[in-house]
């Protein structure tokens, strides 16, 4: 378990004091996928750097598996392995050598390391690049190699910052499967990402951070329920002027539009009215098509960020 209590981080610049994180308290369990969402500059990276002891903890506490990060920051980097957002510079180091080196640094036995490398490279379908110099690898293969470096002989927690960047859709799916496999083995996986749709399908718990403050935390179901059980009517059109011409019916709770689509939220009991209106608009050729969909984590995220602004 990672226990974070009343964590605050402040920096000083030429304009004065900047609060990067303010009074954050979280409990991050092992054996779960824990997602952290937030806009650029919201404080996510600062929080991760505090967890692994790269930033000095001045206000608040962090304990990882009972170990105080404030008192022993090196223990945090032993208990947590990290895949950073930036692309690693491998030079001529091959994926196999890079991953083996990380396994050795974490104290893995040679046979254990070789077994894990063979499994991971096969599971992620990157075996054919195992012995290719790093400077000849594509961005996606480098990213997958960095993932393997983070999970090889991992201890209690794995922290992944935008792990699917540059990764093709097929291998991206394989990567998420490996993340779930790691949690099934009892390891806690923290995922920092902007890819809300992917995270929604795999995360057990999600925390939303904005402007250094904790906005919401809970299971996907819990967080989505905070926007009630609203549905969405999606109207698709070719003429961007359509949005200004449409009169939203009284059952429409809220609406937004852009990129050839208008989205109207509605209560479930108004679905028949919404479908009838959609059919009418298509018949009148006011719109091209329409559809009904559930509220997504992305909808809730945007709503919570707007309210926190």
UniProtKB/TrEMBL annotation:
The keyword Glycosyltransferase does not apply. One of its GO terms (molecular function) is ATP hydrolysis activity. Gene3D superfamilies: P-loop containing nucleotide triphosphate hydrolases. The keyword Nucleotide-binding applies. Pfam families: ABC_tran (PF00005). Residues 2-236 form the ABC transporter domain. InterPro entries: AAA+_ATPase, ABC_transporter-like_ATP-bd, ABC_transporter_ATP-binding, P-loop_NTPase. Keywords: ATP-binding, Nucleotide-binding, Transport. Belongs to the ABC transporter superfamily. This is ABC transporter ATP-binding protein. It comes from Emergencia timonensis. The lineage of its organism: Bacteria, Bacillati, Bacillota, Clostridia, Peptostreptococcales.
């Amino acid at each position: 378990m990672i226990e974070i209590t009343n964590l605050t981080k402040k920096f000083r610049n030429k304009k004065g004091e900047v609060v990067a994180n303010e009074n954050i308290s979280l409990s991050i369990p092992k054996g779960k996928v824990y997602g952290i969402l937030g806009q650029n500059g919201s404080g996510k990276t600062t929080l991760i750097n505090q967890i692994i002891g790269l930033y000095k903890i001045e206000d608040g506490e962090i304990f990882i598996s009972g170990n105080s990060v404030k008192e022993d920051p090196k223990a945090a980097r032993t208990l947590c392995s990290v895949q950073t957002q930036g692309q690693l510079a491998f030079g001529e180091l091959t994926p196999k050598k890079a991953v083996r080196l990380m396994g050795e640094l974490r104290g893995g036995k040679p046979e254990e390391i070789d077994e894990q490398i063979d499994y991971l490279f096969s599971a992620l379908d990157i075996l054919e690049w195992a012995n290719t110099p790093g400077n000849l690898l594509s961005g996606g293969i480098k990213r997958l190699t960095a993932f393997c470096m983070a999970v090889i002989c991992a201890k209690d927690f794995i922290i992944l910052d935008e792990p699917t960047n540059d990764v093709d859709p097929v291998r991206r799916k394989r990567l998420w499967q490996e993340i779930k496999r790691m949690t099934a083995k009892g390891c806690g996986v923290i995922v920092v990402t902007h890819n809300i749709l992917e995270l929604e399908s795999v995360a057990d718990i999600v925390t939303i951070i904005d402007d250094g403050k904790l906005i919401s935390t809970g299971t996907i179901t819990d967080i989505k329920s905070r926007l009630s059980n609203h549905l969405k009517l999606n109207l698709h059109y070719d003429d961007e002027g359509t949005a200004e011409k449409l009169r939203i019916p009284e059952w429409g709770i809220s609406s937004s539009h852009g990129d050839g689509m208008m989205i109207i939220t509605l209560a479930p009991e108004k679905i028949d009215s919404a479908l009838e209106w959609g059919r009418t608009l298509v018949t009148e050729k006011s719109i091209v098509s329409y559809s009904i969909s559930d509220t997504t984590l992305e909808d809730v995220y945007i709503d919570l960020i707007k309210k926190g602004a």
